Fold each of these.
Amino acid sequence: MSERDEVRRRIIDSATHLLQSQGRDAVTTRAVSAAAGVQPPTIYRLFTDMRGLLDAVASDGFDTYLARKHNQALTDDPVEDLHTGWDLHVQFGLEHPAHYLLMCGQPLPGRRTEAAELASQRLHMLVGRIAAAGRLAVSVETGAHMVHAASTGVTLSLIGTAPEDRDFDVPRRLREATISSITGAASTDTRDCAQRAVGLKAVLDEAPELLTGGERALLDELLDRLADAVLIR
């Protein structure tokens, strides 16, 4: 590790310690530089500004989350794997609330760290496996958005609730309701149509040479419309 990287690591660790022990407001230029044993200009030279430092701290926290996600062994049941991924998400938020609030508490349009992008790709992969198995009743994009919104919302709600007042049956029920809705809780006929549409799209992803770009774009639009129709019936 170069001297620059060592100093950068020390600053991130110091900011992380302040965040976890005293909260977001304690992470100031003066406090971080004193804790890391550097001059304040060093922070700006390495991170541009405090927002850049906080993004680095958030990414560092996401790395922990991603390591846990990637250590999740996939099984032959993609729906069960999504259940496990949901539980890991909630668990990380409760074990590292300061990091979680920094990462998910104040989302900004168009701003996403590299680690957050990797986490999103992981979620899309898990949902995509359900589609490939013919068990997804909405489009992969819609399913991933629904799972992300629900799991993030319930985690933030639990963080904002006193530990003694937390009802852990709520995230379990919401998990079951959300995953059931994307895997087919509607009528049998509608669910079958949606699952076939999503399954066909997933299969076509493995054979891109079969259609031209224009043909694929048109077919994707039609298949997504069929897949999402189950939600508005």
Amino acid sequence: MTVIILRDFMRLPLTLWLLLVMVGAHASTISIGASSNRPPYILEDAESGLEVEIIRAAFAAVGMEASFKFYSRKRQLLFYGKERFDGIMTVNSSLDLTGYPSDIYIYYQNVAISLAEKQIRLERVADLQNISIAAFEDASILLGGEFYKVSKRTIYRELDTTENQNKMLYLGRIDVAVAEKYVFLANNLRLAGELDTSKALDIHELFPRTAYRLMFRNSIVRDAFNEGLRKIRENGRYDALVKQFLH
């Protein structure tokens, strides 16, 4: 499969064009390690979702193609370390990875979610102590030092399947789900046929937005992605994708 589309390839900055020729970037598809299903950001079965389409569009804007391999976070990190991918997505500085980080390409809004009927009041991260919590994988690392301390002082677990957070909350097995807001709401739609998701929710915005980048093994591929990302922000494609998946 050809990665570089000639008309787009010739529009690249001269230095990037020369570097891509030197490494033979036109010879293979860029492989990206992706997390398992995380709607609306990652739709594994469809090989789509907001994150996937942003990355795909950014590479396409510079005449390149990306393929995605979906794994749990632990396997994602393991296989990146074994050099099975050219890049890995949804990473930030809290993960100790070697490589070349891209520009920020997406933000997540992580929140604490409780059933309104429980009347749980949360104004700061420290208020999460002494209540039972189910969070997403690596939340104790990604959400900062204060949340890490809380995770050690309360009934706390991390789940590799985000849908299980919804199930545990609605079934009364936990007090709070710490989840990305749009992921939780998307899971509600997916689970509506097997779970009563009609109960009112309180969404507590305790955390700042979390910025995510890709990590690449090759600085030249990273630079190409950054250039493509700049292009789709300028031409409106980025905003159109956000509107498509989050609204």
Amino acid sequence: MRRRLRKILSEVLPKDEVLYVYNSYDIVGDIAILRLTEKAMKHNQIIAEALMGVHKNVKTILAQTGPVLGDFRIRKLEHLAGENKTVTLHRESGCLFRVDVGKCYFSPRLFYERMRIARQVGDGEVVVNMFAGVGCFSIVMAKHSNVGKVYSIDVNPAAFQYMQENVRLNRVYGKVIPLLGDAKEIIKERLCHVADRVLMPLPEKALEYLPYALLALKNTGLIHYYDFEHARKGEN
């Protein structure tokens, strides 16, 4: 089981300094991505070296220095230690994903959700994935279900390029169809009433794009709609 970051750092930093460090981090392939507070940044080399000491497979440590922004969902990253790179090969659920974490949105935390959706897909279903990124939901679905076809849309040219490569890496030709462009326009022009299932894994734009998800569905079907729920302080 992966150790929490504060537990790792308690061995190399004073206790009061450890409190300024976010406890979680992502590992994508051989790249670890941390979020550091301004006060924690002064210890960035110690933090990076401690993490690499625990995770021997990690070759690069990056710090996320801002929120995920823009239509392409890009996060600003700063190199801290190891190889200075942003491209890696990530393994998940028997699939391979080439991704540039500096140019494409990718979250390893969604691995369970990707498999959960794949297990629901029926034989021969047609699926429209409106916000596909580098193709993770689509490819996991193609590898772990008997889906008929997944139209896999993304507006980010870099993500589209990696999606095409990932289709080749995972040998899901003909099942996953990469499409570059805005999901609204592609559905209006090419994908009206074709889908048994529509996937909308982008909470920030889900409500805006919901009419087009409905347009993509056949007379009956299922939409996987994701949104944010903000709990008040003290609520679970």
Amino acid sequence: MDDTYKTIEEKAEGIYKEKGSKFIAYAYPIVSEDEAKEIVQGLKKEFYDARHHCYAYRIGAKGESFRMNDDGEPSSTAGRPIYGQLLSYDVTNILVVVIRYFGGTKLGVSGLINAYQSATSDALQNALIVEKTVDITFTAQFGYPMLNEVMKVIKDEQPKIEHQNFDNSCTIRMSIRKSRAEVLEAKLGNIEGLSLDIVGK
């Protein structure tokens, strides 16, 4: 089961210059479309004097959600080349915005495509690309007498404990990579009287 994906650890920058035009690329790790929109709006305010703010993003372990925007450049000369680099580097949960300062000389369609590709590629080369796992989150609720049995399963399967509360009624929220989730679910499901809530399956 494929339960990993590549993304960037933190913001990265790249630049490309051609015939007086300057293309500045900013790459950001993101997890939602709203986050992408917020960053784009922020950059438009910060670089209000730039001619274009073109971008592309991919979200989801397999890049299920994506968008490209040419922001006034000729169709498919900006957003698509940026997106193409995200595919080439096989990264997701990422937004790249390329800000263009016009230098007075038109670059033509092929020149624009090359410029947006090159700026994006430079940012991705400067980025720290990391591999992350697709995780499933379990919330187990059970009576205190079952605690030892639950903790034995946790010790065996090694999920990451995110929150726990031990009282008369105990709650443990834990996450585990997708490829190992089925075994954990089966073992916890065998404990009589335990209720299990699963997110991300």
